[in-house]
Amino acid sequence: MDEKGEEKLTVVSKKVTTKEIQPSDTAIIFALKNLDPDNFKDVVVQDHKGGLRIVSDLQNLSDEDFEKLLAEKEKKVAEKVNKNSKD
User: Fold this and answer.
1) String of b and e for 56-75 (b: at least 16 CB within 10 Å)?
2) I need a labelling partner for 9 at 20 to 30 A (CA). Which of 18, 30, 65, 82 fits?
3) CA 68 to chain centre
4) Is residue 20 situated within a structural domain?
5) Residue pLDDT tens, the chain, 87 long
6) Domain boundaries, position 57
7) Residue 81: is it exposed, middle or buried by C-beta count within 10 angstroms (0-12/13-18/19+)?
8) Percentages helix, strand, coil for the chain, rounded to the nearest 5?
9) CB 33, CB 41: distance < 8 Å
10) Structural domains of the chain, count
11) Under a CB-based contact definition with an 8 Å cutoff, are residues 40 and 32 in contact?
C-alpha cells in the first residue's frame, strides 16, 4: 500500500527460456515401458511344448564293450586335460 492507503501494483517481468537437451535412450525406454507395458517389457516368456526323448545305444552294449568304450573316453579326456595344462 502506498501513503494514501491505496494498493500499489508492482509490475513483474517474466522471461521464458527454452532449452534443448540431448535425447536419452534410458528415458525413452522407461517411457515406452510405462506407456505400453504389454509391448515393451524386460521379461520374455517362452513356452516350451513337447517332450524330451533320449536315444542311447549303451543299453544294448555288452559289459565288455561298455568297459572298452569307457576306457577310450577316459583316455581322450585325460589327453585333453594334459594338453590344456601344458598351455
Assistant:
1) eeeeeeeeeeeeeeeeeeee
2) 18
3) 45
4) no
5) 667 777 877 888 888 888 888 889 999 999 999 999 888 888 877 887 888 777 777 778 888 988 999 999 999 999 988 888 776
6) 25-86
7) exposed
8) 45, 0, 55
9) yes
10) 1
11) yes
Hey, what's the cell of 40? 515393451
Residues 82/75, Cβ–Cβ less than 8 Å = no
Which region, left, alpha or beta, applies to residue 50 given φ > 0 means left and ψ of -120 to 50 means alpha? left
Task: Please tell me the pTM assigned to this model.
Answer: 0.34
What does the block give as the cell for 21?
537437451
Q: Is residue 49 part of a domain?
A: yes
CB 66 within 8 A of CB 58: yes
The alpha carbon dihedral of 58, 61, 62, 65 has a sign of negative
**Domain assignment present for 65:** yes
